[in-house]
Specification:
9 helices; 44% helix; 14% strand; globular
Amino acid sequence: MTTTVDSSLYSVMKARKSVRVFDPNTTIPKEEITEMLELATIAPSSSNLQSWRFLVIQDTEVKKELKTIANNQVQAEEASAVIAILGDVDAYKKVEQIYTQNVAEGHMDESIKDRTVASTYAVYPNAPVEARMNIASFDAGLVSMQLMLVAKEKGYDTVTMGGFDKVKFAERFDLPENVFPIVLIALGKAAAPAYGSSRLPLNEIADFI
């Protein structure tokens, strides 16, 4: 891939790698993780319903438990924190709150808000749970990538973990019925370089019409 222009964004994108060996002695203040999450949630979401939810795991003993749930992936224990990205199939229930805030911040007027809220309640409650899970999973991908780029810009490393027992996770952390686990993101400082990785040529994966 070639480009005539570089930027801090491109540099961060190129620098971010999937790290699997973390420094277990690195700690990240709660306030800094909070800021990362706030920046990550600038990501778009379906109908702006923001169906993502987060569980930030920093406790040493809990991370040891998490490691067994995550197929003994060592990064689940050694990372400074593991951020579980969860999905809420009932995210539509916050539509009034979200769009009232949109009006308060001047993003739309009351009439657009009322139409949007009515439309949301006409569609989402009647959609199958599987469809709402798919929507939440799609949104989780958007917020996860944004979170990993934000973390890298702040000097931290990450890796996503999809290989974990989602049933055991939900049981261990007592997730409500409407919330389900999607992916885990280990966050911390690399203790060993990440492997590089290649990409398929664009002409094999993209068509221009």
